[in-house]
Amino acid sequence: MLRLEGVTAGYGHTVILEGVDLSLPPGGLLAVLGRNGVGKSTLMKTIVGQTRLRQGEIRFGSEAVSGLPSYRRSRMGIGYVPQTRDVFPSLTVEENLRIAARPGKWTIERVFELFPNLAARRGNKGTEISGGEQQMLSIGRALMGNPSLLLLDEPMEGLAPVIVEQLLESFRMLRQDGDLAIILVEQYVNLALDFSPTTIVLDRGRVVFSGESERLRRDQSLMADLLGAGGQSKAKH
Ligand SMILES: Nc1ncnc2c1ncn2[C@@H]1O[C@H](COP(=O)(O)OP(=O)(O)OP(=O)(O)O)[C@@H](O)[C@H]1O
């Protein structure tokens, strides 16, 4: 469903990603790990078309999407939840969801089933809900577009443990759904390894590990090598 081959990309003259290969089958899961600033968000932005692609190819389904603008990729079924939480502050929860709607199985009712907190806040503006609820709304908006691939960029960042637990539960429900492929960028290593059977680790814009999450989890010294002290401390989560 998604294939990157030799992708080199960055911003303006700056190259951040170098020779990245990855592939994900329909309904597949992938965790993306790496220290701060190694290019995880840049990888997500490159998949959705928000960086400058210098070399390589990105295919989604049967099409090469490398030359397509973001909105075309989104219409083709790539849903993106950026680290910055993509909600319109002056619109209500319900309006935020409605304007993101495209035909398919995801409806407002279904999003409210996934995130009951949002149902209770349907009339509140984007500014009148908590950070955790904004994250749920941002994910809900991506789902309303009825994607076949969902990119989640550090969705747990800065959220209280109780909200992290709620989000995790919703991700498990999405995973059970089966036909939605998900790429999860995470700083919480164990949480990501639990979520996805396959993982890649980035370091300075290159893929330095690609394989079974379990293999990484079992090899603590490899994990320390690839993710460093920061990864280790967050591995406790
Ligand atoms: N819009 C931009 N223009 C220029 N450089 C950028 C831009 N966005 C990110 N960078 C640089 O690209 C590099 C990779 O950043 P990126 O945000 O992809 O890393 P990350 O692995 O997601 O980090 P974090 O875990 O801290 O979110 C960093 O050196 C960053 O300064």
TrEMBL record:
Keyword Aminoacyl-tRNA synthetase recorded: no
Family: Belongs to the ABC transporter superfamily.
Domain spans labelled ABC transporter: 2-229
Gene3D superfamilies xrefs: P-loop containing nucleotide triphosphate hydrolases (3.40.50.300)
Listed Pfam families: ABC_tran
Keyword terms: Amino-acid transport, ATP-binding, Nucleotide-binding, Transport
SMART domains: AAA
Any one Gene Ontology BP term: L-amino acid transport
An example Gene Ontology molecular-function term: ATP binding
Species name: Paramagnetospirillum caucaseum
Transmembrane segments: none
PROSITE patterns according to UniProt: ABC_TRANSPORTER_1, ABC_TRANSPORTER_2
Top-level taxon of origin: Bacteria
Record protein name field: Branched-chain amino acid ABC transporter, ATP-binding protein
